[in-house]
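Please predict the structure of the following assembly.
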Amino acid sequence: MTGSKRSISILGSTGSIGTNTLDVVAHLGGRDAFDIVALTGASNIELLAEQARTVGARLAVTADESQYVALRDLLSGSGIEAAAGQSGLLEAASMEADLVMAAIVGTAGLAPTLAAARRGADIALANKECLVAAGELFVGAVKAGGGRLLPVDSEHNAIFQVLEENQRHAVERVILTASGGPFRTFSREQMADVTLETARAHPNWSMGLKISIDSASMFNKALEMMEARHLFGLSPDEVEVIVHPQSIIHSMVGYADGSVLAQLGSPDMRHAIGYALQFPRRGHLPIERLDFAKLARLDFEAPDEDRFPALRLARLAMDRGGVQGAVLNAAKEVALEAFIAGETGFLTMAEITEAVMDELAHLPPASHMEDVFAADLEARHRARAHLG
Ligand code: NAD
Ligand code: MG
């Protein structure tokens, strides 16, 4: 720590979570309150350089090696160091900082986040793929490093807020809320030929492209079921999902006495981010306050696993255990990229994912991180074969 300032690095600072994090940092006092150590991005180096100058970061890293010289030029005269590629990302994660915001999208976030965890930083975790793919190995690495794991995914942040640490033995279930996304009321036939533009338009939350489409297919909720399981040490049948179209209840915990504790708020990621940045203190955040008279009602409906098979696949992956989470995630990422590129249909994403999960159901559980990366690679390879 530098004096009383909290030092932080943001992996994925140019994304939706990253820019929201910098917004919260500015609200909480900016450079007077935080020492920003490293920022990382990928292709958007203009924004990355501008962010680094604004907050006075020490290191700015682009994941894209071919952008290194351009980034270095953008930073010239600022005293901010530039780096690129996987080694640059690992360098950013390994620099001394009290807290690391893990906000890279997809499996690409796993290795850098792991490096930060091993170093002992507190991890503000937006990158759910770390837990989906590496589960207990990732949780174990954070524990061994000695840092805290602070969930930033809104549902898990909500559960973290209402899960009474000294009453864990009495937790019966966690209930993840799902908005249902833009296709909540669509038939399967209607979903078969939806476009990228309709799939990316989330009714309540403003998020990055991939997670928005994962929300439309409910693969996001599938990942979140696995994320919750590992974060809170639950068995698969203790993780429930309920569709709640208004996204006001961010999630709930059910206890042995029948009580259900919920966390409510406006659908604004800056809440969960601000909670993680200030934990265990609750400071002021610029979030729209709930007006219950205006809300008038909160609705709930059971999720439909026929129209949203991703939920069934999450249960299958949890029941099978081993590296099925890594396989589901990697196959889904390949299928998702193909959907974004217009190369495959919306419903095909789940079909390809399930086929690859079945093909790789025999893989043994991971004893090392290398096993996770190997399962990830093999699943990508298989998913591409299905795409032809
Ligand atoms: P995004 O696409 O908006 O931003 C992703 C960030 O990662 C950017 O900084 C981008 O430059 C960087 N990046 C992309 N590819 C990379 C690569 N190969 N290597 C290194 N860096 C790379 O994504 P987002 O919506 O901010 O989501 C980030 C993570 O947070 C995801 O894991 C997502 O599931 C999770 N999350 C996001 C939200 C949300 O509201 N956006 C909510 C909950 C959880
Ligand atoms: Mg979420």
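The pocket of magnesium ion (ligand 2) is lined by residues 153-155, 224 (CB under 6 Å). DSSP finds 17 helices and eleven strands in the chain.
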